Amino acid sequence: MPGKFCVSLTCSTDNTDKATVAFVVANAAVASDKETMVFLSIEGARLAENGCADPIHEAGFAPLAELIDNFTRVGGKIFVCSPCFKKRNLDEAKLIAGATIVGGAKLVEFLSTDGGSACVTY
Predict the structure, then answer these.
(1) Interhelix angle for 16-31 vs 64-73, to 10°?
(2) SS3 of residue 65 by DSSP
(3) Cross-sheet strand order for the sheet of 77-81
(4) Residues 117, 110: contact at Cβ < 8 Å?
(5) Percentage helix, strand, coil for the chain under 3-state DSSP, each rounded to 5
(6) What is the architecture of the domain spanning 4-121?
(7) How is 22-39 classified by DSSP, letter by letter?
(8) What is the mean pLDDT of each run of 10 residues along the chain (122 residues)?
(9) Contact present, 39 and 6 (Cβ < 8 Å)
(10) Which of 16, 81, 83, 107 could pair with 41 as two cysteines, CB 3.0-4.6 Å apart?
(11) What are the extents of the domains in the chain?
């Protein structure tokens, strides 16, 4: 079933439940043969830095770092809001594999080209 799917994530260590569920849904979408992208903004941008997700493990779910790794390994894309990343003084040299720092125009492009994209927000 072709198509695109976006998960917009605004949380990280401030709401580990939402961060985890967002990547569970993203993994389900990419496993359903959707071109899937996670957009990390606000506090979610922290997850783009190596090590941030490592201690997060919500009961009943795989560890967040494992969910993120699986997502990118099977072709999921992670876009990181550039202003959000910079505002938090995060280190681009510590960017996780599969993540790309982008401006808002890249999100708009993903959501609006090739028939558009469904999007959920956590």
Answers:
(1) 30
(2) helix
(3) 99-102, 77-81, 35-40, 4-9, 118-121
(4) yes
(5) 40, 20, 35
(6) 3-Layer(aba) Sandwich (3.40)
(7) HHHHHHHHHHTT-EEEEE
(8) 89 98 98 97 98 98 98 97 98 96 95 92 97
(9) yes
(10) 81
(11) 4-121
